Amino acid sequence: MQPARDPLRSFVFHAADRAVRTVLVNGEVVLEDGTPIHLDPAAAMERLAEAQARMLKDSVKRDYLGRPAEEIAPCRLLIV
Length: 80
What we know:
alpha+beta, 3-stranded antiparallel sheet
């Protein structure tokens, strides 16, 4: 996060998520002790999985070249 020409921007864009413990929006706490207040993470992941399954199924119909999702954005595993 150096040089800190703009400390707030450096913090927001370079700090790890563990550096943020509490977030307020319009004076309301939305993240406390690193836990979202108004979001059920399990339900959000379920909705995300459902949306991804729909995208995978429908990508051929929506892509201008008729490509499957695997061709448009192939999964790439990084093995270190």
